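*** Backbone structure tokens ***
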Amino acid sequence: MNFYNEMYEGENVREPYARLRSWVETMPDDFRQMKQAEAEDLFRRIGITFAVYGEGGDPDRLIPFDMMPRVFEQAEWRRLERGIKQRARALNAFLRDVYGRAEIVRAGRIPARLVYQNEAYEKSVVGVVPPRGVYSHIIGIDLVRTGKDDFFVLEDNCRTPSGVSYMLENREIMMRMFPQLFRNNRIEPVDQYPELLRRTLESVAPAKCQDRPTCVILTPGHFNSAYYEHSFLANLMGVELVEGQDLFVDGEFVYMRTTQGPKRVDVIYRRLDDPYLDPLCFRPDSMLGVPGLMDVYRSGGVTICSAPGAGVADDKAIYTFVPEMVRFYLGEEPLLKNVQTWTLWKPDDYKYVMENLPDLVVKEVHGSGGYGMLVGPKSTKAEIEEFRKKIEADPSNYIAQPTLALSTCPTFVEEGIAPRHVDLRPYCLCGDRIELVPGGLTRVALREGSLVVNSSQGGGVKDTWVLTE
């Protein structure tokens, strides 16, 4: 399989990377190793880790960082930006619809069971319209590239997409270690993200809010795999990081306990899943949420970002219908393509997938983090047959996609420089306007030949550059 190399075309360097060629090719091995060690030390001192549970030992891992940046031209980014914003509008329109009149279901464009029998669909918020009609406020759209102008959406993350702290810290560390690169290249900044996020949250404050909104980040606590990011963003935004025990409901509002007495909270950027938000509405055994929170939310006393129930829009089964959402709600043709997807509850798709399992990627509908999936070409016969049995037991729990020829980007490895597969997660903010910073989180599959970029599966991260015109 041929892979598009984003930097090289044969011996020639593609235009976005032209100024990096001498930096890459003349860097001595000992200098590279010294800088790599410096980067790891910075990550360790700052505390940038992620957690892997269920493998024994210390779950906190240092995120692997690659010093070779990924570069986009301005024109490339503008095309992506338009497509991302279009997709974000369509996803929010879908959420407004399925928690309202469900016109797209009535029109037969999406099967009713995929919506109403979806475990992420929250019946408790049917008829509730959040401020400005925005349900998903931070959308992480995972993109892969297979050619110069060929970008595909791999999945949508409409609940609590993580990784933005890596995007910001990757840039900070690169600027600290290689300031000359930023003097010699005109690179769009990303450090305005926390300010844009706070402005987005404030713009969706409830109508009952009379003064400048008080925003907080609600975290499950320091044992959560993304706790570093929660505290990092709270610090940069200048808002309080709270746990469920720090909040309480009194009458029509939510309050935060402070040393100066209760303070009303208007906007909650929640970083915990729906079932744990309110033990009176969802899981009664949850110790992480706020009793009575959903009553206040439904009455318009507080905004929860992203809204409870937003997860129905990023289900992998619903994903196949997003291009249809764009046409149905916006009257436009999708600017970004989906990856071809087979849905295994359809007899013809099921037959095709089962006959071609060694050549396909199969994913659980509700899976994430690189788990619950089969990469056929990289799996043994025994692994394929074991996964076949899982599919036979519950076909509707799976989708399948072709093994994509993911683009590669030069990456510093032990033996020098080698191509490794990458994807991209830009972060789209939806409030009174739709905005995203120029760049995103580039994840890289550091294992040779691997197509799985998740950090929990051996992947790392890179700084992502968008060049100014």
